[in-house]
Amino acid sequence: NKDIYILGIESSCDDTSAAVLRDGVLLSNVTASQDVHKAYGGVVPELASRAHQQNVVPVVDQALKRAGITKDRLSAVAFTRGPGLMGSLLVGVSFAKGFARSLGIPLIDVNHLQGHVMAHFIKESDDDTSAPPLPFICLLVSGGNSQIVRVNAYNDMEVLGQTIDDAAGEAIDKCSKVMGLGYPGGPIIDRLARQGNPQAYKFAEPQIPGLDYSFSGLKTSFLYSLRDWVAAEPDFIERHKEDLAASLEHTIVDILMKKLRKAVKQTGIKHVAVAGGVSANNGLRAAFRDHAERYGWTIYIPKFSYTTDNAAMIAITGYYKYLDGVHCSIDAPAFSKVTF
Ligand code: KG4
């Protein structure tokens, strides 16, 4: 009975990450983040590709070392195939292909979004029982996507609703940029919001039917309101940034939770998880706890380290595909855009 060792590789945006699992249990998860983008207020694709190119070998090396294995023990290589920045993806995809081919082991492609959801199945030890039971509903909120997903099985996910324009994280980041707060805006808005009044200002909430989201109207409403206030009072942002952050966060969380309640009602599934970078947000986490109490939901909130981009979530998704015998061919191209 040979142990199954999976190497996961993630390079879809600005984090180069590698992780190793043994029989679905995480042995190592190493991530190199890229500070180079801070000066530009957003990820610069060409700089991201170059940094991945520098980081990918040392990061994989570290992940294997920390896992205490050599590369010849690996059973398969799982990699992020998309969606993401093409130049960034290509580094991880090409590395994974070359590595798997040189070792003569299977290659497994992973959808980055599915990976975010699957972060809930990362086990840190054999007796880790924190995973949600199937089926469950997952709110996936990251920098590039906002979706409500019904998870029927490890390899069976159904998108019930998704954003028709911007993602929640994108909206937060853009509003933060307009306020001159820096990048990425999510953690900054989160920190400021804790000291502000969430009822101080009102911003437009979208009226979209069904379970879909929209955040572009909110962004515009925020921008125009701010423009008027600053015209009347030049130091408005500096004086009210806490209230602005708290009100913005409150509006976004409100929009997210409204549709999530609707999804729970429609499906009758009360096991509700959250995933993706924005799930690090304290206001959103508080709203989840509040809904658990008020509506009897059982909620699943991942550890901070598994909410943003990481290879552990890619490795665990790859592990379940491996168990199902699902591999991909060496000529599988990266894709920049896709849903499940
Ligand atoms: O999942 P992720 O790392 O990247 C994608 O796959 O898109 O998500 C990044 C997003 C960014 O928009 C970032 O501002 C947001 O997650 N974010 C947060 C917080 N931490 C990260 N948003 C709100 N509050 C936070 N604490």
Structural summary, described in words:
This protein is 42% helix and 19% strand. With 340 residues, the protein is α/β, with parallel strands linked by helices. It folds into two domains: 136 residues, 2-Layer Sandwich (Nucleotidyltransferase, domain 5); 166 residues, ATPase, nucleotide binding domain (Nucleotidyltransferase, domain 5, 2-Layer Sandwich). α2 links the parallel β4 and β5. The two termini are 33 Å apart. The protein binds 5'-O-[(R)-(carboxyoxy)(hydroxy)phosphoryl]adenosine (KG4). 5'-O-[(R)-(carboxyoxy)(hydroxy)phosphoryl]adenosine (KG4) binds next to α4 and α5.
Brief description of this entry?
With 340 residues, this protein is of the alpha/beta class. It folds into 2 domains: 5-122 and 306-323, Nucleotidyltransferase, domain 5; 136-301, ATPase, nucleotide binding domain (Nucleotidyltransferase, domain 5), CATH 3.30.420.40. The protein is built from 9 helices and 10 strands.
Topology summary:
Elements: E1 5-10, E2 15-22, E3 25-33, H1 45-67, E4 76-82, H2 86-103, E5 107-111, H3 112-118, E6 136-141, E7 146-153, E8 156-162, H4 168-178, H5 185-193, H6 216-232, H7 236-267, E9 271-275, H8 282-295, E10 298-300, H9 312-323
Bound molecules: 5'-O-[(R)-(carboxyoxy)(hydroxy)phosphoryl]adenosine.
5'-O-[(R)-(carboxyoxy)(hydroxy)phosphoryl]adenosine binds next to helix 4 and helix 5.
